[in-house]
Amino acid sequence: MNAWTKVLLLALLGLAILRLPLPIPAAVPQQRLIRIQSSRYAFSPGEIHANTGDTLTIELVSNDVAHSLSLDGTDFSLSAEPGQVAVGTFVAAKPGVYRFRCTIPCGNLHPFMLGILRVGPDLFFLRGLALLLLALIVGLWRSPTKSAPPTRTAKSSITVLAV
Amino acid sequence: MLRKENLARLLLASGLLIALVLPFAGRWLQNSLSPHTIELHARIPEDGGWKPEALQATVDQPLRLRLISDDVAHGFALGQMDRLPVDLLPGEVKEITITFDHPGTYTFYCTRWCGPNHWRMRGVIEVNGPIQRPVSGQSVPLWVRLGLDLDAPHPAAVAPESKPAAKRGMALLAELETDGKIYDQDYYRSHAPAQVWQELRAIPSLKDRSDAQLWDVVAAIWQHNTDARSLAEGQKLYAANCAACHGQQGAGDGVFASKPPPDKKASQGMPTGADNPLKAPADFTDSASMLGASPALLQGKILRGGMGTGMPMWGTIFTQEQTWDLVAYLFSFQFEFNLPEAAR
Amino acid sequence: MSARLDLTRYKSLAGLLRNPWPQFLIRILALAGFLFTILAGLLGTPVGSHNFAIIFVWIAWWSALKLIFIPFGGRFWCSFCPIPMPGEWLQRGGLLVRGNRTVGLGLPWPRRLTGAWLQASGFLLVGLFAAVTLTTPRVTAWMLLGFLVLALTMDLIFAPRTFCRRLCPIGGFTGLYAQVSPLEVRVKDPQVCATHSPKTCFLACPWGLYPLTLKSNADCGLCLECLRACPSDNIAINLRQWGADLHPGGRRLLAEAFLGLIMLASALVDAAVFLGPWGWLKVAAYSVGSRSWWAFSGGFLLLALVILPAMFILAVWLSARLAHPQLDLRQTLAHRSQVLVPLGLMAWIAFTISFALTKAGTIPSVLSDPLGWGWNLFGMAGQAGTGQVTLLSLTVQAVVLAVGLAWSCRVARRISASLREALPLAVFAFFFNSTMLWLLAA
User: pTM value?
Assistant: First the structure.
């Protein structure tokens, strides 16, 4: 088959690796209460783990200035100041890795005040690893008809390494 | 060749000139479009606070301010004036206009917590003008009139074993009032709960009531002298201004309770140091202390601040009514009130 | 031999490239913009996300550099970079064409300081202060001003473009990654050059290069002065396959391996600091001078100068041992460092997508209010939302990393005699990219 067919097949394979739904046994959804402390410029805990379908109640406490916690890709957002704890609940329906961040400017490193919420097993990373493995194989693959690349024919000196 | 080179040099010079002049030209244009506008920068107190800290204005002449935050979320509000605070997010510029009716000294302050020294972030506006009408004078605060010593400890000689509930004491209070006893605002403000309890204990007709029942009456008296609106307002003020140090549950365990002592530079000239070691924020859930304090005493502490401790003075920020609302709310840490918004 | 498409075949395009005016106008724009950026950084709001200096340098320009200029044009940015312009113009004695009165001592650069070592170290040094520089307008402004002054000084003492060739941290990795770009400047027919004298192209080149011997894109700044100077129309601007400068032949320098490794380590650390959930790391990187910052710097340097090089040396050593006959380690180290080029380029592209592209929404609002003084020039001030990391952007990053790995393995295969030799390098690349993926997406 020619090069384009190969590329197409590879693309399909890559797509499958990234998007094919896998039958993962789901854990029982729980109710969790998580108290997150926020300060410049960290959430503590910065990484939260939950099972798919869990109901998460987040308590956001601020330890220095006004901070907020906004979950990427959702409408969930909490704002807290010292002395005013914010509480909110949401259901982690879809598995995946979500970042949450502060959206009230709290200083110069504010755009990088991040945390990670992992819902369910970290499938995306595993898929990514599988994709990398595929890339490794594809990269090392040398079709038998390919000849070694010739060197440039120019007048300048080229030292060819003893191979 | 030369002409092309000269043209090139001209273009280069023009381009660079535009780039150099743009900020200043823009600034000049901005100032001419909104003349007489004072630029007020907000920074966290450790970096300077309000710049400038002192402003001048004239009665009946609008004071135009351009408010800019240079680091975190701040807010601008004027003490004792009925004006909604203006939120200042970094990078957003807000222009406001204030017109003063009376001459005097006004305090402006920050309304979003911007660090442990947030409460120090204040400035003054001196408003000049002829004194046309007598200003509703700052009357002498009650604690001064009563001759209270704000710094002396005020232990309660007795304390209840469980939280008194106003609801339970209502009936008995009604009886006492029909008997001619007066527990009005003046009485309430100048008496500590423990004091009131002692007086009740001394009433012969109440001899066979239990201690707890008498405490319920005290709670009822306290509730009697406030209302749902005041408690709600007090709760709002507390959450925005006090909870950071005193804790959301009033236990003196707020986020800034354990911070190191205020630095000399920012201490506004108040005595600090060895003779006034930093005390922990007051614990409003501590009955032994709270029940020995009268509303006037608490109001006094709020108005005057805590000399050299981390307790700010609110005299120029809160109105009288707001301070009484706050005091009423503080007692809700001790008493179970039965008003709709009293539920926490 | 991979095909080349000579763009100068198209008369109108060739005309446009030869004409000094388009490039000159772009250069004016760049220099003026640069000056304005410095002013914005010095005078404007200290809030990074609302200052033109921060957004335009670290979001707009950085994205353009990593996502467009380098992958598609190699060192194209260098052709209109404002930093060396004043020095180059003074040295040349004219803005458009060489003048009669040139300024500058023209001393030769010390031999001991050649090679990419200085540039790699410069990039590492800047990286230690990255958390502060990338978020504080004043610091960015002073840094740019410092580069401007340094470049001017160096150009007046040494040959033009000395700063660019020897010191510029950006120039270091731009040159390194330019080797895979699809654009190149080469000579059409060497025979024509053999009989032509004087070598006007060499005299015209501000980089001190001789187009006839140009074998790689690493040092060519695409200024096209040679194209304009050649009387025989013998200079070609070729469109070619990606990665053409990476092949078994050619002499490689150890410094390139060092630079390649520095770039990889910096990608890891920057991803961890800026995109990770570890606030303590961010604060450590930000509080310059504190104990935690020293610890952070120590860790960064350890990774960049010891750990990652050790792993790479191990991979190369294995590769050399598995060869028949066995190879010399030092030469192989330099030679096999080509593998790091596509790996690093794609890793930085993935990082840039997450770090900068997601924040592209701040560009219109900062154009409307560049100094954060409350202006609204284009009516779009105050509309910046915080960039969100979406599944789409994560997927794109994963694909970019996969492409980088495949490409890197392909280069490894191409420059090795057998699969056995290429395998250790491929494994090194795989582990690096897996770590990068974890930092970016997990």
Answer: 0.90
